[in-house]
């Protein structure tokens, strides 16, 4: 897997215009892969805390669309696709930490797996702890074992999906619309977990590109 990029990756105005307009899928794919590899390689080689913190909080300042423009339109089982999904996990958490932490706790009660330990959230997991988990997972992309960070994201998604499903079951008879919305959300989280798990396995096989 080509992870080493020693010189900056440059793109012309026309290339960036193609990304924004989505006119050239091959170019979008190339830019996504080259930027993801270049960024990850440089930061992991010299993980300056200030730089890492800016990357972790990037979407707080610039919004998720700034990341989506580069990485959201490639395959799930690629490096840019995996990075996009971890940023998406953090955004999901930050949008409603109170609700997400409740689903997470409900999920840990419902399923007896090692996911709670893998996710690594402090217990009991309230809004502050779930926000800290989001940042810790993203930090792991740049300063730790990337496969572990992806596995932690996947474990979080599985537990939260289980919690959302449990709440949906409770609401099914009295609040059908709410139950349907939570079921859809649980499905999306389950799919996200599967994508991150596969990406982690590919990284360990040196095949995530």
Write the H/E string, N to C: HHHHHHHHHHH
Share in helix: over 70%
Q: What is the gyration radius calculated from CA atoms?
A: 18 Å
Helical region count? Answer: 11
Strand content: under 5%
The averaged pLDDT comes out at 88
Straight-line N-to-C gap: 6 Å
Class by alpha and beta content = mainly alpha
Rough shape?
globular
The unreliable regions are: 1-21
Count all strands and give the number: 0
Sheet with most strands: none
Keywords: DNA-directed RNA polymerase, Transcription
Organism: Curtobacterium caseinilyticum
Protein name: DNA-directed RNA polymerase subunit beta
Description:
- Keywords: DNA-directed RNA polymerase, Transcription.
- The chain is mainly α.
- It has helices spanning 13-21, 25-45, 49-56, 58-62, 64-71, 79-95, 97-110, 115-119, 127-143, 146-171, 176-204.
- Helix 5 runs antiparallel to helix 6 and helix 9 runs antiparallel to helix 10.
- It starts with 12 loop residues before the first helix and ends in a 5-residue tail after the last helix.
